[in-house]
Design a protein that fits this description.
With 307 residues, the chain is an alpha/beta fold. It is 21% helix and 29% strand. A hairpin with a 4-residue loop joins strand 13 and strand 14. The structure holds NADPH dihydro-nicotinamide-adenine-dinucleotide phosphate. The site of NADPH dihydro-nicotinamide-adenine-dinucleotide phosphate (NDP) has 19 residues, from helix 4. Its EC number is 1.8.1.9.
Length: 307
């Protein structure tokens, strides 16, 4: 059994770290619990260009500064992979994979999203062997090589542009003939000579040489013809799924697994909150994540102190 806290924040991305700042500054005993490194998606983002007051900053730099800030008022930082949250009315029990558990008067779920898999043959076996979900982390391994990026959303286009700065060539595969990404990002993409967009195609199989990825087979959506691209790396960016398995039994998620919250970021379970990308919402950005974290922690503070 671990400690008990007023406020336990699950996930230390921008939403969770902001919740920790607001909770601890308000005087709540506060802890963040995280299964990876603090920073969330910031760690996978080369440059952040829409954080007000700073025109451009590396994601990892902002993550580092947020983390320093998040523990500056006494919030604890705990390592743990949460597998279940139990509701006991006035208190919640948070249980980790290793059997450690914590109690808290309020819990904020800020676990964000994880990248969706392509679900094609040979994909799983080659994760880390040429298939990567993080261009910022792994891009340097593909210097001077040819790679494929899958998806037509903001993530895929941004990562394709990041990779194009070091890879010899980037193939960008989209399943429709139009992008989903914002116009400004599409305009930026058009400036890259070494990015080739392949439209109306879907990936169908990963080929390896017994050791690492050597090619990607894709299918033409109209003709169903198959083609092979000889690439050393494959970066799927085909959307995201929320990390909420550990609260599913509480009935607080929508049909896609996103947390349903009210204006105070509270779920229908009193004292259980959601903040950031893990919530059902329209705009998933760092600024909206930190806003959620502040609102949730402030409401939890009011509830706990009976204000
Ligand atoms: P999106 O859901 O926005 O885009 C997913 C893309 O993958 C779409 O082009 C979709 O095609 C395609 N796709 C989905 N499934 C498959 C499949 N099985 N095979 C092939 N292609 C597939 O996800 P993102 O990760 O790009 O973005 C998630 C959220 O984060 C969005 O709200 C986005 O705006 C935001 N974001 C914002 C950024 C910014 O503002 N700078 C940066 C990165 C993300 P189709 O279009 O046909 O559905």
């Amino acid at each position: 059994m671990g400690r008990s806290y007023d406020l336990l924040v699950i996930g230390a991305g921008p939403a969770g770290m902001t919740a920790a700042i607001y909770g601890s500054r308000a005087g709540l005993t506060t802890a963040m619990i995280e299964a990876g490194a603090p920073g969330g998606k910031l760690l996978k983002t080369a440059e952040i260009a829409n954080w007000p007051g700073i025109k451009e900053t590396p994601g990892a730099q902002l993550a580092y500064e947020m983390f320093e800030h998040s523990t500056a008022f006494g919030a604890a930082y705990l390592y743990g992979n949460v597998v279940q949250v139990e509701d006991h009315g006035e208190w919640k029990k948070v249980i980790c994979e290793d059997g450690t558990s914590y109690e808290a008067k309020a819990v904020i779920v800020a676990t964000g999203t994880r990248e969706r898999m392509m679900h094609i043959p040979n994909e799983e076996a080659n994760i880390g062997k040429g298939i990567s979900f993080c261009a910022v982390c792994d891009g340097a391994f593909f210097k001077g090589k040819e790679v494929a990026v899958i998806g037509g959303g903001n993530s895929a286009l941004e990562e394709a542009m990041y990779l194009a700065q070091m890879a010899k060539k980037v193939y960008l595969l989209i399943r429709r003939d139009v992008f989903r990404a914002d116009t400004i990002i599409q305009e930026e993409l058009a400036k890259y000579d070494n990015i080739q967009v392949l439209r109306k195609v879907v990936p169908s199989e990963v080929i390896d040489d017994g050791n690492r990825v050597s090619a990607l087979v894709y299918e033409d959506v109209d003709t169903h013809e198959k083609h092979t691209l000889e690439v050393a790396g494959i970066f799927p960016y085909i959307g995201l799924d929320p990390v909420t398995e550990f609260v599913k039994e509480l009935g607080v998620c929508d049909e896609n697994g996103y947390l349903l919250t009210d204006a105070n970021k509270e779920t229908k379970v009193k004292g259980l909150y959601g903040a950031g990308d893990v919530c059902a919402k329209n705009l998933r950005q760092v600024v909206t994540a930190v806003s959620d974290g502040a609102i949730a922690a402030q409401h939890a503070f009011h509830q706990i102190k009976g204000i």
